[in-house]
Amino acid sequence: MRVEHQLRAFKQVFENYDGAVPLHRFLFSYFKQHKQMGSSDRRWATRYIYSFFRLGKALIKEPQITRLAIADFLCNDTLSLIVETELPLLKNAITNSVKEKLDLVKKYFPEFQLRDVFHFQEELSAEIEHQDFYTSFFTQPDLFIRVKADYLEQLKKKLEEEGITAEAISATALALPNGTKLEKLVPDQRHYQVQDLSSQATGGLFKPQQWDYWWDCCAASGGKSLLLHSVEPTVQLLVSDVRENSLHNLEERFRDAGLKKYQKKVLDLLQNNDQDLHHYEFDGIILDAPCTGSGTWGRTPEMLYYFDTHKINYFSKLQKAIAANVVKYLKEGKPLIYITCSVFKAENEEVVEWLIKELPLKLERAEVIKGYNNNADTMFAARLIKL
Ligand SMILES: C[S@@+](CC[C@H](N)C(=O)[O-])C[C@H]1O[C@@H](n2cnc3c(N)ncnc32)[C@H](O)[C@@H]1O
């Protein structure tokens, strides 16, 4: 396939995409509508467009074709026609490490600034190491699963028999190559859950007691509830979310995982829910808040290009309003676990500062979970105690 042909396919996809829906969803329907694109066209267009967005706004004044070649060079260790044609001097370095490749790019394109990859650096949480974080965007994050400890070795072996490299990260976490068709390979999901490594790490802050009554108030499809259940299976659970649909997925996942005893409600936490909840008192609340998701943009690099910073303020207000509405149902001396998958201080430290100032809460511990060091998402988690 000639390079012009590949480029035309890339351009068509780029020009038709405006960032309004996730890129993977857009590509799915785009390829469906453009059946003339063969599988090789689709594969190259996908590789090029994802690589292109991983460059964020770096070298924005360079021609698009040069930026695409640089992006493709940084993100891949196999040669493409675009690198061969546009960057012949760099092609022999295709298998070098990302850091070495970045040095080469800086040498040939002195205008290149790593910080332009993520041009929201002013907004970052204080603990984030900028260079490492920006560099992480050139590597696709892994797929992680949380596995019952006594099943890990068996599952690892089964995956390896299927030709999948599974790396044990802890006694209960496996890292797999992204795109592994896990549901097909291991349909029985009783012993494992797909869950990002950093998301798994938030469980360390839960510390439930036996027979506690907890509320997962933004439960979506129940990832944190399942994690809580794995930490302490006797915990009683109320799960809620504003989206009824995601609670249907939750039911399915709970069934597969054998979690039977729980109560579920559709609740909008921006409303007064006293009618539904006036007699409830919890031993712990997990608030896995709606957020920009900026800690997960390694999986959705189109956001580096299309994200509008105004949204940070919108989410930060939403997070505070939801927290204020749920804390009244927490028992004194018990924890509110505040979680985001954001790297922005306005959704992390600044929300925590507001919570301890405005609500009867004191901070026990807060941390950025630096997934960018582990090919994983980056998250923020805080444990606050009701006064
Ligand atoms: C980060 S997701 C939760 C992910 C989930 N806890 C997990 O581990 O998979 C945030 C959730 O907050 C919910 N949400 C957003 N606005 C809400 C509101 N006003 N009231 C209740 N839930 C809301 C969203 O529907 C979304 O499912």
Automatic annotation (TrEMBL):
The active site is at C341. S-adenosyl-L-methionine binds at D241, D268, D288. Residues 120-387 form the SAM-dependent MTase RsmB/NOP-type domain. One of its GO terms (cellular component) is cytosol. Keywords: Methyltransferase, RNA-binding, S-adenosyl-L-methionine, Transferase. Pfam families: Methyltr_RsmB-F. GO terms for biological process: rRNA base methylation. InterPro entries: MeTrfase_RsmB-F_NOP2_cat, MeTrfase_RsmB-F_NOP2_dom, RCMT, SAM-dependent_MTases_sf. PROSITE patterns: SAM_MT_RSMB_NOP. GO terms for molecular function: RNA binding; rRNA (cytosine-C5-)-methyltransferase activity. Belongs to the class I-like SAM-binding methyltransferase superfamily. RsmB/NOP family. This is RsmB/NOP family class I SAM-dependent RNA methyltransferase. It comes from Pedobacter psychroterrae.
